[in-house]
TrEMBL record:
Residues 599-629 form the PLD phosphodiesterase domain. An intermediate of this reaction is the autophosphorylated ppk in which a phosphate is covalently linked to a histidine residue through a N-P bond. NCBIfam families: poly_P_kin, PRK05443.1-1, PRK05443.1-2, PRK05443.2-2, PRK05443.2-3. Keywords: ATP-binding, Kinase, Magnesium, Metal-binding, Nucleotide-binding, Phosphoprotein, Transferase. Belongs to the polyphosphate kinase 1 (PPK1) family. Pfam families: PP_kinase, PP_kinase_C, PP_kinase_C_1, PP_kinase_N. PANTHER family: POLYPHOSPHATE KINASE. Mg(2+) binds at R387, R417. This is Polyphosphate kinase. The keyword Magnesium applies. Gene3D superfamilies: Endonuclease Chain A, Polyphosphate kinase middle domain, Polyphosphate kinase N-terminal domain.
Length: 704
């Protein structure tokens, strides 16, 4: 038996936190931001909407996948050694409690506070006759013509209910026969969820009414001659995970389009009902959806607080975070206002590390691709695209480059979850413009973030590369925290060329110089470096491991970190979402600290740092510490080589793990404790504000 195997066997069986419950703990941290009175009001409403959106996706994918495996008898991955049905019961119980807390936060904290600030969400019962007249006219002109009440009786079977749509269940009585009938009415999704009660131009004192509230008070006109007995709101969440057997299909796009059509009719996973629903209606819904009691979530109205996203777009800067204006990264700043920025010249001088949104995406990544598209010396552009916007200037630049006769390769990941249809659409637009579009390798998602530009410089081909942690999406780049490295390194150029040949052709290449690439070498490379830190610690040499990821659930990596901790390696884990590792447990992980930081930006970058006996080795890239990232995706980490880049990363760690920054600390019992005030009760600053202050200090006066 090997030493590593023996060490694993000696680790306790309860050494992992359940991944699904850990995800719910992450969403609880989002909810805590909505509950925080120090957070600006519209931002609190935004966090309520983010919580709701997150939970929808959690059920549509994670819970749906777990339930499907239980029903079909497939092996269920679990890292806690418990029966999957027990885990599912815990998920439903915890999620329901969080949704009740979420509803309470809106009803008792955010909604009243918004009203005091002049943003009123009114009920029909509180409106006067004049307001009701205005809204009734709006209803008759813009809503009534598109409503489709559907009866349920022997001649009208129970209708298909689309996922995530709000619905009204309605009971009506026929006065001639005294028979009670049931009808379902879908609340139109193309109409704003919150309707202005008045049309005044002022934004300092506005009133809204929920669309379903307006419709519910006009039901008599939808059922003339019938007596409306009652109505209730409900909403169903369906399994919307997409699975394709790629080995069995000849056309991936056609197979994916069929699967997307099937997604609409996935089985119900969760039924949300208003807490005033009668038993008769509930029994009908449970029977027709074929769900069990634990899948029913009884909640106070309003259901579906995703609708708050619309309110957060109000022009009320006094109710938002103070604006942060991204600066241009110093190497990309022109020497004078009249000088045209030249990204190639800047990158040729030395490697450039950018940190979004503190440093501008548009004046770095976007400018780089746009300059490549028009530069006559650029011969070829290769790029991976996982998520981007349909009107993206990145896509427009690739099309322009192809139309100019350059060789352009776009590797489009059409299996990016919930962006599949959009990706198919603009992949076809790229093909029509003459871009070589490929879809990666069978069985693997291409999640890495790469751009390679080949430029003829005096008869010598130079490789300009960008390797990032985030998507090439200008919109999300303003709210997602990410990093990217620009380089003309010959090593990186060769590595990226090899990888693109693997992705677009039939090359089989596993040897890279500055890259760690999944699924071939990334896991192995991280494990080797963790073991190296353990050897340094045993020999009394400087050691240390610092990992920043969106999620950490891979058991092999976690066990390696436990073993490193046990021989004295200090381990810092910075995780936004799921965290299955236990921190600070005597005999297991007393040298491990774990932090989670949430706020105005989505912490999205991935950083893997190793002290390495005083010669730090730091990687950034696209990979999280999850099975899917390490085993079933093309992921890339690139090693940073510039000393000042390593210093910037170290500064970021110092800020994130300081006791003087707002963060959540993972406790020994697996719960997260928020520290938002210091020992004297003063509010601690957000990490995002501290990092922006650092970047602003580096900005010369008058620059942007």
């Amino acid at each position: 038996m090997s030493e590593a195997t023996r060490a694993i066997e000696e680790l306790p069986g309860d050494r992992y936190i359940d991944r699904e419950l850990s995800w719910l703990a992450f969403n609880q941290r989002v909810l805590e931001l909505a509950e925080d009175p120090e957070v600006p009001l519209l931002e609190r409403a935004n966090f309520l909407a983010i919580f709701a959106s997150n939970l929808d996706e959690f059920f549509m994918v994670r819970v749906a996948g777990l339930k499907r495996r239980i029903v079909t008898g497939l092996a269920v991955p679990t890292n806690v050694g418990r029966a999957p049905t027990d885990v599912l019961a815990d998920i439903n119980r915890t999620a329901h409690q969080l949704q009740l807390r979420h509803a309470k936060c809106f009803a008792e904290q955010v909604r009243p506070a918004l009203g005091e600030a002049g943003v009123h969400i009114a009920d029909w019962s509180t409106l006067d006759a004049a307001d009701r007249h205005v809204l009734t006219e709006y209803y008759e002109r813009h809503i009534y013509p598109i409503l489709m009440p559907l009866a349920v009786d022997p001649a009208h079977p129970f209708p298909y209910i689309s996922g995530r749509a709000l619905n009204l269940s309605i009971r009506v009585r026929n006065p001639r026969t005294d028979k009670v009938e049931f009808a379902r009415l879908k609340v139109p999704q193309m109409i704003p969820r919150y309707i202005r009660v008045d049309r005044r131009e002022s934004v300092d004192d506005v009133r809204f009414i929920a669309l379903e509230d307006l419709i519910a008070n006009q039901l008599d006109g939808l059922f003339p001659g019938m007596e409306v007995i009652d109505h209730h709101v409900f909403r169903v969440t369906r399994n919307e995970d997409v699975e394709i057997e790629e080995d069995e299909t000849e056309n991936l796009i056609q197979a994916l389009e069929k699967e997307l059509l099937r997604r609409r009719f996935g089985p119900p996973i969760r039924l949300e009902i208003s807490d005033d629903m009668d038993e008769t209606t509930l029994e009908l819904l449970v029977r027709e959806f074929d769900i069990d009691e634990q899948q029913v979530y009884t909640l106070p109205a309003p259901l579906d607080l995703n609708g708050l996203f619309a309110l957060t777009r109000l022009d009320r800067s006094d109710l938002r975070f103070q604006p942060h204006v991204p600066v241009t990264a110093p190497p990309f700043r022109p020497n004078s206002p009249s000088e045209r920025p030249d990204t190639f010249r800047a990158i040729a001088r030395r490697e450039v590390l950018v940190h979004h949104p503190y440093e501008s995406f548009s004046t770095s990544v976007q400018a780089f691709v746009e300059q490549a598209a028009t530069d006559p010396d650029v011969l070829a552009i290769k790029q991976t695209l996982y998520r981007t916007s349909g009107d993206s200037p990145i896509v427009a630049a690739l099309i322009k480059a192809a139309e100019a006769g350059k060789q352009v390769l776009a590797l489009v990941e059409i299996k990016a979850r919930f962006d599949e249809e959009a990706n198919i659409t603009w992949a076809r637009k790229l093909e029509q413009a003459g871009v070589h579009v490929v879809y990666g390798l069978v069985g693997l998602k291409t999640h890495c973030k790469l751009v390679q530009v080949i430029r003829d410089e005096g008869g010598r081909l130079t490789h300009y590369c960008h390797i990032g942690t985030g998507n090439y999406n200008p919109k999300t780049s303003r709210i997602y925290e990410d990093m990217g490295l620009f380089t003309t390194s010959a090593e990186v150029g060769r590595d990226v060329t090899k990888l693109f040949n693997v992705l677009s052709g039939y090359a089989i290449e596993t040897q890279y110089d500055r890259l760690l690439v999944a699924p071939q070498r990334l896991r192995e490379g991280l494990l080797e470096r963790i073991e190296r830190e353990a050897e340094h610690a045993k020999a009394g040499r400087p050691s240390g491991i610092k990992f920043k990821a969106n999620s950490m659930v891979d058991e092999g990596i976690i066990d390696a970190l436990y073993r490193a901790s046990q021989v004295g390696v200090p381990v810092d884990v910075w995780v936004r979402g799921i965290c299955a590792i236990r921190a600070g447990v005597p005999g297991l992980s007393e040298n491990i600290r774990a932090r989670s930081i949430l706020g105005r930006y989505l912490e999205h970058s991935r950083i893997y740092s190793f002290e390495n006996d005083g010669d730090p080795e730091v990687y950034i890239g696209s990979a999280d510490l999850m099975h899917r990232n390490l085993n079933r995706r093309i992921e890339v980490l690139v090693r940073l080589a510039e000393r000042d880049h390593l210093s910037r990363i170290e500064r970021l760690w110092d800020l994130a793990f300081s006791d003087d920054v707002s963060a959540w600390h993972l406790l020994e019992d697996g719960t997260w404790q928020r520290r938002e005030r210091d020992d004297e009760g003063r509010i601690l600053p957000a990490l995002q504000d501290l990092v922006f202050a650092d970047r602003a200090e580096a900005r010369p006066r008058g620059s942007r």
